[in-house]
Amino acid sequence: MDDIVSLAKRRGFIYPGSEIYGGIAGFWDYGPLGVELKNNIKREWWKSMVYERDDVVGIDAAIIMNPKVWEASGHTTAFTDPLIECKLCHSRFRADKKDEIEFHSSSPHIIEGETRSKDWVREHIEWTEPKKFNLLTEVFLGVTEPKQKAYLRGEITQGVFVNFKNVVSSSRKKIPFGIAQVGKAFRNEITPGNFTYRSREFEQMELEYFVKPDEKGSQSTFEYWKEQRMNWYKSLGIDAKNLRFREHTPDERAHYARFAVDIEYNAPFGWSEFEGIHHRGDWDLSRHKLTYKDPESNQEFTPWVIETSGGVDRSLLFFLLDAYKKEKDRSILKIHPKLSPYKVAVFPLLANKPELVTKAQDVYNELKSSFFTAWDDRGNIGKRYYSQDEIGTPFCVTIDYVTLEDDTVTVRDRDTMKQERVGISKVKTYLKSKLTV
Ligand code: GAP
Known about the structure:
Blueprint: H1 2-10, E1 14-16, E2 28-30, H2 32-51, E3 56-58, H3 67-72, H4 75-78, E4 80-85, E5 92-94, H5 98-105, E6 109-111, E7 114-116, H6 118-124, E8 131-134, E9 137-141, E10 148-152, H7 158-162, H8 164-171, E11 177-186, E12 201-211, H9 215-235, E13 243-247, E14 259-267, E15 270-281, H10 283-287, E16 292-293, E17 300-301, E18 304-311, H11 312-323, E19 324-326, E20 331-333, E21 344-348, H12 354-368, E22 373-375, H13 381-390, E23 395-399, H14 401-406, E24 408-413, E25 419-423, H15 427-435
Parallel strand pairs: 3-11, 21-22, 21-23
Antiparallel strand pairs: 1-2, 4-5, 4-8, 6-7, 9-10, 11-12, 12-18, 13-14, 14-15, 15-18, 16-17, 19-20, 23-24, 24-25
C-alpha cells in the first residue's frame, strides 16, 4: 500500500486534495496519469454496460436535486452510520468498524498535553453509546436568507429514478431494461481513510435495471448481473484469487435493499468492497410514486430494480494494487492495456543525434493520432524502460541507427521485456493488434 501511495503521488496518478494548505480529509486530486486511468476505467465500463447492449441507455443527472427527492428516498432519515466517540480524546468512529475501534482502544493517547501509554488507554477507555450520523452533505443555495437547504447527492442513483418516466417515454425502452450513469457522489464519512478507499467525494458507476415485480425472475436477473460484474473485473486483469462475493447480513443492508452482495477485493487492509449488487425491489419507484404501463398488455405496475453500483476511485485503487509488481530490477504496473494511461512510448536512442530525434518525432506524431503516446529522450534507454514500466506503458518503441538504414524500430513488450524489430509502416497495425487483446 505504501508503495502505491508513493508511486501515485510521484508519478502523477493521485495527489492529496488541497495539499499546499495542509490537505482536507477524504478529498483527492487526480494527476495527468490518474485522470487517464480514471477515464479509461469509465470508458470500459460504459462500453460494456451501454454500447455493447441493446437493453441499457445512459443518462447524466444533476448532482443537486430538489431536497424532496432525498426525503422520499429515505436518505434524510435512514442514510446513516452509527457514530461513537472516545470519551478520552473525543475522536469519532463508526461503531461497525471493529478493527478501527480496536486499534484506537490500544493506541497511546495525548490527554491534556500528557502522553498516556497504550496499556493505560486499554484500561481507561470508554465509548459513548452509538448514535445515528447522517452522511448526506448539506449545501445552501440562493441569495436571500434563510438560504434553501439542499444536498450533494449521496448516491448517483436517485437521478435515475426521478427521470424514469422521461427515459421511458423518450427512449421507448420496454421492461426489462436498464439506465446507466457515472458521476460524483458525496458522503460526509465519519472516518475517511485507506487512501482513496473511503473518501468524502468519489465517483460511482451504476446500472439500475428495471424488471417485472416477480420473485423468481428478479432473482435470476440479480444472479446474472452479479456474474457480469465479476467477469468485468476479471476481464480487465484483476487476479481471480483476489476477488470474491460476500452477501450482506440483514443488519448491514442499506435501507433500500431487499438483499445485497458485494464484490470484494483482497486489499492490503483486508477484503474490501469493490462494488455492491443490490435488489432494491420497488423501494425507490414506489417512494417516488412512479409506475410503468406495459405498452402491450396495458398492465400498470411498479417495476423492481436490480442495481450494480461500483466505485470508480475504488476500482482505480484496486487496479493499481493488483497490477503493481516488484521484480529484481524493476517495479512494474502490469495493468491491462485497455486501462494503461499511455499505450506506447517513443524514444530516440540518443537525444543529441538530430537524425535519430527527427525520425523518432515522425514516429511519435504518427502514433499519437491513434494512441495516447509518451515521448521520452531523457537519460539512457534502461532508465526510460524503468520509468515506463512503473506507469504501466505496455510498449516502448526505440528509434536507433538500424532504423536509419532499414526503417525498422525496436518494439519492447512491458510484461515479457522481449524486443521485436518492426517496420515503421507496420508499427501502428502491430500495436493495434496487441492492444486489443
Ligand atoms: N446506489 C447504491 C450505493 O450507493 P453503496 O454500496 O453505498 O451503494 C456503491 O456504494 C459503491 O460506491 C461502493 O461499492 C464503492 O465502490 C463506492 N463508494 C461508496 N462509498 C464510498 C466512499 N466513501 N469512498 C469511495 N467509494 C465509495
